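Hi team,

As requested, here is the filled-out complex form for the zinc ion run. I kept the field names the same as last time so the parser does not choke. Let me know if anything looks off before we queue the next batch.

— J.
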Amino acid sequence: MLADLADLVLPAPCAGCGTERVPLRYGMCGGCVTLLEALQPFRTAPDPPPPGLPRCVAVGAYQGPLRGALLAYKERGRHRLARPLGMLLATAVAALAPRGRPVTLITVPSTAAAMRERGGDHMARLAGQAVRRLRGAGWDAGVIRPLRALPRPDSASLSVAERRAAAESSLRIRSALIGFPRRATPFGGTLVVVDDIVTTGATLAAVTRRLREADMQVKGAAVLAATQLRRTTRGSFGG
Ligand SMILES: [Zn+2]
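And here is what came back:
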């Protein structure tokens, strides 16, 4: 809210490259918009992929204006960037979801603490905008949030396998939804998990395994950005 007002009152810098006092479209300068519009979603996979990681499509590498816009959106409260970023996310979803079949987006959940820090569920906003875009392009699209994320203990001292187990046990299926996908079809069709960034794929894999336990067969994962593979992994829900 305050950030939205600030956007109206003060000329905000470009969210993509930080240039000040330039005309902005979607919160970004013309150069950044052009670069983002030119991105072609691509298949990506960490090496080695964690067990259970579904096919993963990213809009772009985690660099340049994509990185800038994502950081401004997530960490600096520029919530109106949900629209252009959601439109980009839709292009990755479209690469996984055949036309003519309903597609349901499932957001990777944030912990309550992360949502407080960021002023809401940033992935829910992105997914909502992606759904709008997909519907505009002719898809029968919807979004559900069947998972919630519990706080995870610091995982720095854990082994890879222990970290994997901790990631999965911190994800809970909302009890109201248990059994729901089994008997109902409104959310049928293609199930695509959506997240902002993929690094090790651990989070996407844990989410997918959890959903499969609840009989929700995930077709793939769509993310905005893929980081370069790193040897170290972080304990937060950024994996
Ligand atoms: Zn820019």
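Two things worth flagging: Residues 40-226 form a domain with the Rossmann fold fold (CATH 3.40.50). The two ends are 29 Å apart (CA to CA).

Thanks,
J.
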